[in-house]
Amino acid sequence: MVINSWENGQYKEIWVYSKETEADERALCGLINGDWGWLNYYNEEGDAGLSSRNPNYTGADDDETMNFIINGELDPFPLSYVLPAEQVMEALEYFDKYHKLPTFITWHDDNFA
Fold this sequence. Notes:
Blueprint: E1 2-8, E2 11-17, E3 27-33, E4 36-42, E5 50-53, E6 65-70, E7 73-78, E8 83-84, H1 85-98, E9 106-109
């Protein structure tokens, strides 16, 4: 397992790479803004992947956003993706330990937007 992380004030970007085999490209990314965060999972490079969803989000649409830094750029993401940072960290630790997606996260398949 390989972990790369970056931090700048309230923002964090954490990547956990499975690497069970040489060809294994699975990766889970956690983006944090203070007490909030969200997750991206990629099965392989170029995959649209999966992203977290907050099943408790009650907003009417995805117009409400929160900023996160990914690949050095500040970008807005819908609040419907956002989870408590503690839950994001638990998910990253779970993936690191078990090499599979945590079932306690609600996932959206971004291949079928």
